[in-house]
Write a structure and sequence with these properties.
4-stranded mixed beta sheet; 17 helices; globular
Length: 503
């Protein structure tokens, strides 16, 4: 009798093109009634009209004044007719173009895009401990993000603190454009740095001006300073990205009880108002510019004032944000997150709950989906790997189960006697290698086998995994050519002194 071939081990990182553009598998949940959502929206419009926003950039105030807003010093009062016009002009669907067209993304309600934990000043892993982020840490985070198809966009995972701020954006963009072919990110830290970033994308990808302006090649996140303030660099980013045809992800950071009212509904009023007010400026700068609204809403711990994530309020804020975004018909972003200081059960629980909140809410972009610790102060490499496990589980849920005649299993049911088992049926033998999701880091062995293999916890297993991914990493096709095109530009701009940030 012929011996069945030995099952080949599953590769550590699997090429999964079907994960490169996910769509939500479940209908969105509702926390509020339609009338209640209409009431929150109406109060947000009232806030913009009667209380207004403080906008610190004069250029932005001038644009809003020309568009019909009432301006008193730095306070801007925006009428609901202006909001309605901005909502009407903002596109409900647009394409995100990548260096590799096979990674292009469609951003719209119903899409599901994951991005890594970002904006962290520190990095952490079990080998080197917690430390200020370095260029090497950032580059490794880009390599890991590039390697996993379940992550769709890049981000400033951990900022390289060893690079001066006026030169840091060159490292951030060069790394993204040479180590990855996914959708990149630029910080909105002033016109000079933003224009450098745009120029690097055009140069690296060999784009003419028209092709760049008519397609979305990069995103930035605009955080309002809740409550009701838009600072100079954020206002300038709303203008500059719109005029360049690039994506602005408008993100009020409303922590209930601190920067927002202590009730979920009140926090949603503020978040929605700030998002709509920023959208008005963005659309006045260039009607039809691609924009994503939403927010990053949760609560604080009222004993310490520290941010909390994965809480019931975080989930409720996510669901309410989704309802408000669908009310105005625009694509939106949510966020996962963890307040835990290490990659422990608390971190996993907070991230999993917040991910499910975004899944229930049908968030289009889910930021901070892998690696985020300490409320964004640290990017954790073991945390990143364990979070990817959760994302890959969600991605598998996005695949419709097989309902073919064979999948219904009549022959297998007929083959097995009562009290028997299905291990050896023809259906099982034909399907067993690909039947189920194969974990990246989870250990499904029994206790004896687990002890024999070293009794490793999931964070300990994750260390070996991220190290192996980095060891096996190969830059994407075209990276050498992109690097060669970038080098003269970066050398020239460094010699000219780089670009200061706008404070």
């Amino acid at each position: 009798m012929a011996r069945r071939p030995r099952r080949q081990p599953t590769p550590l990182v699997q090429d999964r093109p079907e994960w490169r553009q996910l769509r939500h598998p479940f209908a969105p949940h509702a926390l509020f009634s339609d009338d209640e959502i209409a009431g929150i929206h109406a109060m947000a419009l009232r806030l913009l009209e009667e209380l207004g926003l403080s906008i610190l950039l004069k250029e932005a105030r001038d644009i809003l004044a020309i568009g019909g807003a009432s301006v008193e010093e730095d306070m801007v009062f925006i009428g609901r007719d202006m909001v309605e016009a901005a909502i009407a002009s903002a596109p409900a669907s647009f394409r995100l173009c990548c260096a590799n067209p096979l990674r292009d993304l469609q951003m719209e309600n119903g899409a599901l895009l994951f991005g890594p934990g970002s904006g962290c000043p520190n990095a952490s892993d079990r080998i080197h401990g917690r430390r200020p982020g370095t260029q090497a840490d950032f580059e490794n985070a880009v390599r890991l993000t590039q390697s996993l198809d379940v992550l769709h966009t890049l981000g400033p995972c951990c900022e390289p603190q060893d690079i001066p701020v006026h030169l840091r954006h060159y490292v951030l963009m060069q790394s993204q454009l040479t180590l990855s072919d996914k959708f990149p990110f630029i910080y909105g830290r002033g016109r000079a740095q933003v224009e450098d970033g745009f120029a690097m994308i055009r140069t690296a990808l060999d784009l003419d001006e028209e092709t760049f302006l008519n397609n979305a090649w990069v995103e930035t996140v605009v955080n309002t300073n809740s409550p009701r303030l838009i600072d100079r660099p954020m206002a300038q980013a709303l203008i500059d990205f719109a005029r360049a045809g690039q994506v602005v992800v408008i993100t009020p950071f409303c922590l209930s009880g601190a920067m927002a009212p202590i009730t979920v509904a009140g926090a949603l009023v503020l978040q929605h108002a700030e998002a709509l007010g920023a959208l008005v400026l963005n659309q006045l700068a260039c009607p039809g510019a691609p924009a994503v609204i939403g927010g990053f809403g949760s609560n604080v711990d009222m004993k310490s004032g520290a941010p909390a994530f994965g809480t019931p309020e975080h989930v409720q804020m996510s669901i309410g944000t989704g309802q408000l975004a669908r009310h105005v018909g625009l694509p939106w972003r949510g966020a996962a997150g963890a307040a835990s200081n290490t990659a422990d059960m608390q971190a996993a629980g907070e991230t999993h709950m917040s991910l499910w909140g975004n899944l229930m809410a049908n968030a289009g972009m889910v930021k901070h989906a892998a690696g985020w610790l300490e409320g964004g102060l640290t990017f954790g490499f073991e945390k990143f790997i364990n979070d990817v496990e959760a994302l890959q589980t969600i991605a598998t849920l996005c695949t419709q189960p097989d309902t073919s005649a064979d999948s219904l299993g009549w022959d297998a049911l007929n083959e097995v006697a009562p009290g028997g088992h299905f291990f050896a049926t023809a259906q099982t033998m034909n399907r067993y290698e690909t039947a189920f999701y194969q974990p990246l880091v989870a250990d499904l062995s029994n206790h004896g086998a687990w002890e024999k293999n070293g009794s490793l916890r999931s964070d300990e297993r994750a260390t070996a995994i991220w190290q192996q991914i980095l060891k096996d990493f190969t830059p994407p096709p075209g990276s050498t050519e992109r690097a060669a095109r970038l080098e003269p530009f970066i050398a020239r701009r460094r010699a000219e002194g780089g670009a200061p940030i706008l404070d």
